[in-house]
Amino acid sequence: MNDHEIVDSSFSAIINAPIARIDIPTWAFALPELEYQGCSPAHIAAGFTTAPDGKRMSINVETIGGSLMVQHYVEKLAEPDHLILDSISDVFTPNGHTTIQVIWELSVKPIDAEKCEFTNHVRSLATHHLLALLDRQGIPFEIFRTQRQPMSIAHNRAETPLFAASLERAALRN
Fold it and tell me: Looking at the record's lineage, which domain of life comes first (predicted)?
């Protein structure tokens, strides 16, 4: 574990569609807001734009553990079966605004000709803004990490099968 790592969480679910029909980047960068909201009760809004360098960006708004998060996910790797997104996410806590780096990795691998395994891997890391906020409040980072992990892991566990079902619907529509 990295000294500044908050959470490293990975869950998988089955998609009942051939891997050749899956295109994670197309799904992620065209996911309708209502579909995004249907993948977790914590999901508030989703939209799409481009980063200053022209790369695609997914904007996601959600609450985790009572904190509102605005995630600015920029594509780092975009292949039909593998998408890596990186965000310096705004986090609005009862104690103030800060940021957290979130790396979101979505992938699929074939199980057989008709189904594949989807993996939703989320890593979050403290930024210097978060560390400064914790320091001003006298909160040790290890305490923050210990309290944040169960909420983030539960969120990822719950949304993974719903993301897989959404990807499956998209694959079968195409």
Answer: Bacteria
Read off φ and ψ for residue 53, nearest 5 degrees.
-85, 5
User: DSSP secondary structure string, the chain?
Assistant: --TTEEEEEEEEEEE-S-GGG--HHHHHTT--HHHHHTT-TTEEEEEEEE-TTS-EEEEEEEEETTEEEEEEEEEEEEETTEEEEEEEEEEEETTEEEEEEEEEEEEEEEEETTEEEEEEEEEEEE-HHHHHHHHHHT--HHHHHHHHHHHHHHHHHHHHHHHHHHHHHHHHH-
CA 22 – CA 37 distance, rounded (Å): 21
108, 119 contact by CB (below 8 A):
yes
What distance in Å separates the CA atoms of residue 64 and residue 66, rounded to the nearest whole number?
Answer: 5
Half-sphere exposure of 143 (CA within 13 A, CB side): 6
Asked whether the CA dihedral 162, 119, 158, 70 is positive or negative, the reply is negative
Residues of the chain with pLDDT under 70: 1-2
CB 130 within 8 A of CB 173: no
Q: Which amino acid is at 47?
A: G
